[in-house]
Design brief:
- The chain is α+β, with helices and mostly antiparallel strands and 169 residues long.
- The chain contains five helices and six strands; from the N terminus they run αββαββββααα.
- The protein has helices spanning 2-5, 23-28, 95-104, 115-129, 147-168; strands spanning 8-12, 18-22, 38-43, 51-57, 65-74, 79-85.
- The strands form two sheets. The chain has a three-stranded antiparallel β-sheet with strand order 2-1-3. A three-stranded antiparallel β-sheet has the order 4-5-6.
- A hairpin with a 7-residue loop joins strand 4 and strand 5.
- Helix 3 (95-104) runs antiparallel to helix 4 (115-129).
């Protein structure tokens, strides 16, 4: 959720030094904590807009997610932010899918979308985050995805579709 909200970390260093970095930079390994630095606090932007977080687990009750999706609507910027978690070492942001779906939303009207647009968004997010395998070097066809990966892709698509539908309702 912090990645979708574009939260920032305030890092406290030795001798009172402070710096700010986006939470996604730390999670992606682009910027790391230096020796003797600590995360002081997390600054989360205040948005008066719908935010939805959904996760799928392998069993009932609390447990480690097999996939999660966070959706944040940002009417001021007329944008949609999406973060997919638990399927990679860091949250993934399907930026093209975000821009595409934001262009379809009537920000000045009811903000509703047709069910087929929601389904297409889910598939777009899933394909961006769980891509097909690359074709072999000899120019043949790419091997089909294993059943477990196909199941993960369907799960991500369903979560993204449902989360966006709830955010828009």
């Amino acid at each position: 959720m912090l990645a979708a909200l574009e939260a920032e970390l305030v890092i406290a260093g030795p001798d009172g030094a402070r710096r700010e970095i986006p939470v996604s930079h730390l999670l992606a390994g682009r910027e790391m904590l230096e020796p003797a630095e600590l995360i002081g606090f997390v600054r989360v932007p205040l948005l008066h807009a719908p935010q939805v977080f959904l996760k799928a687990t392998g069993r009932t009750g609390p447990g480690r997610a097999t996939a999660s999706v966070a959706i944040v609507l940002d009417p001021a910027r007329r944008g949609v932010r999406c973060a997919v978690g638990a399927i990679a070492p860091m949250p993934l942001r399907p930026l093209e899918a975000e821009r595409w779906i934001a262009s379809l939303i009537d920000w000045d009207g009811e903000r509703g979308l047709a069910p087929d647009a929601l389904a297409a968004f889910g598939e777009y997010v899933a394909a961006a985050c769980v891509p097909d395998q690359a074709p072999p070097d000899d120019g043949g066809q790419a091997p089909p995805l294993p059943p477990a990966v196909l199941h993960l892709r369907r799960t991500v698509a369903a979560l993204a579709r449902r989360a966006l539908g709830r955010a828009l309702s």
